[in-house]
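Hi! If you just cloned this repository, the fastest way to understand the data is to look at a raw example. We've pasted two of them here, unedited. The first protein comes first, obviously.
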Amino acid sequence: MTMIIYSKCIPGGRSIANVIIKRAPVVVLDWDTRQKSRFEAIDSNGTAVGIFLPRGSVVRGEDLLVGEDGSFLRVQAAAQPVLKITHCPHHGSPFDLTRAAYHLGNRHVPIELQADHLKIEPDHVLKAMLESMHMIVRSVEESFEPENGAYAGHHEAGHLHEHAHAHSHPHSHAHAHSDPLSHSHADSADHDQPHTHTHDPHSPHSPHSPHGPKVEPPTHSHKH
């Protein structure tokens, strides 16, 4: 049996027409397999496929793999046993999910984060901990797409985010002073607010004092 080698991954099938994606054969993989960069499988046509991606790559559901012969292979996340965690509507609030995610993260547990629930792989110790926090924990069979982590090299949760980090600053930081005796300001990105100087009108040294500026009395010398 001839094996087709796939060595490129298009996250979420980005920029590929839906009609082409739908025609592609499917390979169903659980999380344990998809987090490997090299593995073998059988697609929906019964064809043997070999996945050889860069080290550290993670394959997500709905990704599109590109074969050496130019063919496409669509990835489907397999349903697998997971613990689905939700907050208790009677004794808690949605914020409890944040607290649960914090404690799970401290234990370096792979977590799928959703707006209204969390998912982790089955673990009776963690299940007991979560239930003691008044969380609702159910054993289900669903796809599992945990977070890659902040420093993951591959795309996060099936999406490649492209952000432009170059920021243009239309304003000038140069300060022109016509007074040759005026002081200069250090150029700083935080130097956006004008400087205001306040004077105490009751100070005897202030020109705005109702008594006027303080004047020292003249010194008289007398010769005898």
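Ok, and the second one:
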Amino acid sequence: MVASEITHVADSAVRVSSKTAATIGMLCTGFVALFLTFDTVLKLLNLGPAVEGTVALGYPAAAVQWIGLIELVCLVLYLIPPTSILGALLLTGYLGGAVATHVRVSSPPVTHTLFPVYVALLACADCLYATAGFGSWCRCA
């Protein structure tokens, strides 16, 4: 093989792995966006399940819309590429509050208490890849 052929083969391998990584990043972002959008809409519209769940966790019903508004701001920042790192950071803090709330009321660990951690890890996945040198495909770069 000639050096140019080796470079071409190496470039092809990199493109395939970058496409795969980009797809995984978009799927993670899509899942997080869908889940948090659903949760935000429930809270902003003050719908029954959101109010009941929030009250059951010890918060006043009047706080539901404020919590939804904070979640909306974090989500919008996360979805706008130039502010996505700030949005991911704010979402991590928001979801950390959810973990603390579930610990306080002794919710089941794997299904309730750690679920916000799973969402935060997905929200930060593309930003973590950017710091590992995959900035060419990451929307956070």
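That's it. A detail worth noticing about the second one: The first helix runs from residue 3 to 44.
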